[in-house]
Amino acid sequence: MVQPGVPDGVPDDFDCAMRKFAWEYGQRLRPDRGTFRTLFEALQLQACDLSTPAEMDVWAPPALPTPTAGKLVFVAPGGSDGAAGTKDAPLATIAAAVRATAGANPATVLLRAGTHEIASTVELGPANSGLTIQNYAGEAAVVTGAKALSVPQAAWKVHKQGDKWDVAPDQNSVFGAAKLKADTAFIKYVGDFDSAAECAAAATADAAKKGPYLSFSWQGVNPDVKGFQRGCYGQTDDVWAPHAQAGVVSGYLVRQNTWVADVSAAGLTEMPGLRVDGRRAIRAKYPNGDPEQSGHYLTGANAGMGGGDYIKGWVPLSAGTQWVKPARKPDSEEVVIVAADWPGVEWPMTEAGGGGAEHWTGEGDWGEFHIGVGGYCNDLSPPSGYWCAMAPPRGQCWDKAKNEGSGCVQTHMSPDGMVLARAANWSDPTTGVVQSWRGGGRWFTQQWLVESFDAASNTLSFDNTTGHQGGEGGTTSGQWWIENIKEECDSANEFFFDAKEQLLYFNPNSTDAGPTGQERWAVPLTRVLFDLQGTADKPATDIAIKGVTLRDARYTYMDAHGMPSGGDWALQRSAAIVMEGVERIELSDSLMTRVDGNGVGINGYARNVTVKHNEFSWIGDSAMFAWGHTSTCLNANCTKKTPYTVGPDGRGGQQPWGTVIANNLVRELGIWQKQSSMWFQAVTAQTQLVDNVHFNGPRAGVNFNDGFAGGDTMKGNLIANCVRESGDHGPFNSWDRVPYITDIGSTPGKPTIIPALRDISQNFIISTYSSQEAIDTDDGSAYYNTHDNFFVYAANGLKSDFGGHDNYHNDNLYGYVNNCWGGGNSNQFINNTCVANSDTGGFQSDCKKSPLMTVSGNKIYNKQGKISDKFCDTTNVVVGKNPPADTIVAMAKVVLGVK
Predict the structure, then answer these.
(1) Which of 47, 99, 146, 379 has its CA at a distance of 20 to 30 angstroms from the CA of residue 446?
(2) Half-sphere exposure of 775 toward its Cβ, with a 13 Å CA cutoff?
(3) What does the pLDDT look like over 2-26, one tens digit per residue?
């Protein structure tokens, strides 16, 4: 397998048997996908001697019945908004059809085959209650936020062509991989030379012998290269992730074939994206590499905290990038609320079983509500949140005198710039956008607009109102790339739009041929395709979108972000379909693909929204999210207030409740924002996540940002290939750092900060790559009932840290985890079967467990079938050596209820 992300020590026969079962399980959940080739390939089952299915599973528009009741309006490309809206005389736009059906309940807009451009957001409100928008009779209706662009072949002219070496001084592209004066599989010794120019020429001349070479590295005369001095090495694969090393010179081969066309007739002022024949083109970037393939470029990451680095597409940490520290800003206002501010609310200030004063905040159901307002968060909307505080309780290490942290998470901020000598070669660096992982851990990505370039210091300065896409801050950053630079339009499928010249530069996937004139060009411009807006008093109700393809909403990562609650996320409240003030909304049987922001966004008051049986693929950020509001009051009589609806009291009901996310296929997401998920929720309650299939994401598949109210269900899902690019995470992740008051919590009708139990059952989760555990109940998470699941791999089974408690793991099967359970106040680990990836361990002694924790009735297997520590509860036993692969799969079928 190629980069499978499997922990060391796992038998190949188990890995293959488990993956085959996962493929079969996915087919049970989505029988409409046939042999489910996309899942087969994601699981890399061809490496297990299984034949790849002949046909690719693709979404097909359903043949939905045409309603016979209510008002019917037809829309077709090529129609007329002055027409009658009948089948024979259709309207031209969806917006006109929405206006024509306003006030009619029920009503149906029937979309005929073809592409329906959304030039501006389609607004749906209470007057549209009872409206369904669907495809007609199985036809392929495509709704797009992209504007078609006509560029005939005659418009294209050659801009630059030819091969050249792009040279990087003081960078070693074969560091740690070359063999002294010898060849490896991909790195060939060319000879010893006195200069980089001679090495480059020799690599060119040697191309027909050992090459062709895609990069070279001349080792220079620096004694640090230890015997490699003057050595010249050529590399035959396309790895380009150089290591900073003085005196060494490396270069990669640029096969430029850039053409240019005047597109002024289109009247564009920007080109935030480009589609060529329906697929994303790449905004000219350095280093080269397709952002859609970013997950394939990270190597060396498997279960644990998240190691490895990129071999292409990103400037790696080893390049030694210098970042400009953020300028000092005014302090935020610290808001600290405790139980005494809310008499009559069940709000424990101490933890059952002891503890409280020595802990750092209130998790789950105890302690303080702590946020910051303003300060470094003034560019957020609203300017408040947990990480906005100058001293967020989660391990703040802020040093005011030095204006920096000392290695810990810190107040929301990001670098103000970076040193980049390469920028001196660019005609206009201010067109650039820098995309980078957060420094100190790959947790989220930030994006900055370049404001200026100082040639004397080679410093790019960022627009300091950007870079706000994550929660906690840092004064440096991590791996990065820069895009939207004209001179970097030098690789296949890259483009650059010069808004001043009104010229489009494009590099076809060819060494000399230009565009043919047959391409379908389109520019994503519309952020939101459908906006459903009402109020709690007057909601938009019973609106459905069915059987259509939704695509090409423009990116929104530079739009205003806010901090949803006490987790690590920052988020924009926009999506291709966004809603607030709604009841009984449905998105079903549809395909959402290549939207550059979020897919579906549910904000504020929302009841019983259903998203079912859709496919989400190649999504820029998250597939789906829900994010509620609370109130402005900070105490019971509201004598303490904040201007923003971010206080602890959630009893006003301005949140999504009862959302159903069922039978969806979600794959290939997080193209731009790596802190992304299949499903994310904050200040949201009673969600049902049922029978979904998700694979191939950079971070958690499911993320709960807080412990608001509870009552959520996650059942029957297949989740695989998460945490592919990030670290310190799991396929499911939660936080609970700030408490919220509701009357739908543990005791309905009673004001409390104690949430109702969340139920996680019969899920099949494969924790490959940098997954610490399948269920990462992080930072104070509490009241999770996790039972009857099959959890494969990861470092831990039960995790409960930083004040977490009341997390129950019962009757689960764990396959090859390092450690079956960890501690936590009032936790349970009962009647589980754990196959340990260790010789004699895989468990902690139950003799020194956390206060009020129960560890009982568990069966442990390990490689030698021996016990490395004693059990005080003798119902816990080491049964023997790890069972054969087919026996473990058989046990998994019992747990998951598969017959």
Answers:
(1) 146
(2) 36
(3) 889 999 999 999 999 999 999 999 9
Q: What is the predicted pLDDT for the residue at 403?
A: 53
Peptide linkage before 291 cis (omega within 30 of 0): no
- Concatenated DSSP letters of 348-378: -SS-TTS-STTSSS--TTSS-EEEEESGGGT
- Answer for the pair 421, 414: CB distance below 8 angstroms, yes or no: no
Please give the average per-residue pLDDT across 329-354, as a whole number. 90
Using an 8 Å Cβ cutoff, are 816 and 10 in contact?
yes
Phi/psi of residue 624, nearest 5 degrees: -145, 145
| Overall pTM > 0.70 | yes
Domain layout of the chain by residue ranges: 71-144, 153-284+489-507
Residues 6+ positions from 190 with CB-CB distance below 8 Å: 199, 202, 203, 206, 210, 216, 232, 233, 234
| Coarse DSSP helix, strand, coil percentages of the chain, rounded to the nearest 5 percent | 10, 35, 55
Buried b (16+ CB within 10 A) or exposed e, 342-359: beebbbbeebeeebeeeb
Give the whole-angstrom CA distance, residue 21 versus residue 352. 41
In this prediction, residue 225 has a pLDDT band, given cuts at 50, 70 and 90, of: confident
The 8 Å CB, 24+ separation contacts for 491-495 are: 491/254, 491/255, 491/256, 491/282, 491/288, 493/276, 493/281, 493/282, 493/290, 494/281, 494/282, 494/283, 494/284, 494/285, 494/288, 495/271, 495/274, 495/281, 495/282, 495/283, 495/284
- Cβ neighbours around 664 below 10 Å, total: 30
Query: Can you tell me the distance from the alpha carbon of 380 to that of 829, in angstroms, rounded to the nearest whole number?
Result: 41
Q: How far apart are CA 85 and CA 76, in angstroms?
A: 9
pLDDT digit string (tens) for 594-640? 999 999 999 999 999 999 999 999 999 999 999 999 999 999 999 99
Average pLDDT, the chain: 94
The structure tokens listed for 224 are 């640090």
If you write DSSP's letter for every residue of 683-737 in order, what string do you get?
A: S-B--EEES-EEE--SS-SEEE-S-SSB--EEES-EEES-SSS--SB-SEEE---
* Residue spans of beta strands (DSSP E) within 732-802: 732-734, 758-761, 764-766, 775-777, 782-787, 790-792, 796-798
> CB within 8 A of 206, min separation 6: which ones?
188, 190, 213, 234
Q: Could you tell me the two tokens for 628?
A: 């509620």
Q: Biggest alpha carbon distance in the chain?
A: 84
CA atoms within 13 A on the CB side of 93: 14
pLDDT for 852 beyond 90: yes
List all residues 6 or more positions away from 401 whose beta carbon is below 8 Å from its beta carbon.
Answer: none
Contact assessment for residue 703 and residue 588, using Cβ atoms and an 8 Å cutoff: no
Give the pair of three-digit tokens for residue 217. 């590295």
Q: How many residues does the chain have?
A: 899
